[in-house]
Amino acid sequence: MSAPFALYVHVPWCRHVCPYCDFNVYASSAPPEGEYTAALVAELAAHTARPPFAGRSAGSVYLGGGTPSLFSGDAIATLLDAVPRGAEAEVTLEANPGTVSRGTLAAYRAAGVNRLSLGAQSFHPPLLATLGRDHTPNDTRRAVDTARAAGFDNVSLDLIYAVPGQTLAHCEADLAAATALAPEHVSAYALTWEPGTPFQRHRASGRLTPVGEDDEAAMAAAVAEHLRSAGLERYEISSWARPGRESRHNGSYWNGTDYLGIGAGAHSYAATPFPGRRWRNERVPAAWRAAVAASGTAIAADDVLTEAEARSEACFTGLRRIAGIDVAAFAERFGVALEDAFPHVARLVDDGLVERAGQRVRLTARGLLFADSVASTFV
């Protein structure tokens, strides 16, 4: 039987667009649910009727955005009914805490969603205001309680730290508030200043001042220590989970699993034919929907990787995992030893940024602080 793939479904609407966000999202509180869902089903059918996804099932499904919780339980059920997947598939839905109710969550659970990812971001109202979020801390608390009542036993919370105006005490209070809700998973990200966003323009004009490097490092250390103390184990640079609750879907992006992205602007990857291929969809929802109606798919760019590109990707994605790069698997796939392909690994070891651990090369504790810089050396 062919190996399962990961399925990502992009819902590109939010009630409003947060000023730090550079995702493919559009402001709408009433998106065209029926038309969009029908097009998703058609696009999925077209891709799963031919290689590399024909005859395969989805081991994980991730409904992301945007705000998928703007869609009804009926729409989510229609989509999931069309997905070829096994009974044990992980099915995640992202939700804004202010958009869910007992009824909608129960409907998502009945549709087949078994993992909920809530965008908490902070429990400090002024920081939520800075981030442009339209929910309150109590919305997040209610959403978790309501999710439990609706039958969800796998809940993840997203947090953002190093937000302008945030102190270490704020960060620690956010961590305490998050872990008090006993989530199975937490994703904690340092704020990134993406080009073209209002945040980046406000920084350039002096309206916003970034958190200092030392303060950001102190917050990163507090995140790691607090979540570890709360019983969550770090398994990826920005992800912590209780044993057995690691995100299978997110892991697919780091371990080389094929993934199919459907919806406006979604990205896909296939490892075969060697050395691999990446493609992305039309970004604008109307253009995406028109392309799907015309040909079944909506591919806007399609790139066949070179072997050098595939080797680089295997390294910088592998290093996102705390377990690191499997050097035996690397050699088997590429026919060359890791340190022959990338001789500078020895220097990274000498600098204390990576270490050899059995059959793996992984970031050290110091290397985790400079993860992006280390990854860039493999590009």
Describe this structure in words.
With 379 residues, the chain is of the alpha/beta class. The chain has 16 helices and 17 strands. It has helices at residues 33-47, 73-81, 102-111, 125-131, 137-149, 168-180, 198-205, 213-229, 248-255, 285-295, 307-318, 327-334, 338-341, 345-350, 365-369, 371-376; strands at 5-11, 13-14, 26-27, 58-65, 85-95, 115-121, 155-161, 185-190, 233-236, 239-241, 259-262, 267-270, 277-281, 299-304, 325-326, 354-357, 360-363. A nine-stranded mixed beta sheet has the order 9-10-8-7-6-5-4-1-11, with helices on both faces. Strands 12-13-14 form a three-stranded antiparallel beta sheet, with no helix packed on it. Helix 1 (33-47) packs across helix 10, helix 2 (73-81) packs parallel to helix 3 (102-111) and helix 6 (168-180) runs parallel beside helix 8 (213-229). The two termini are 34 Å apart.
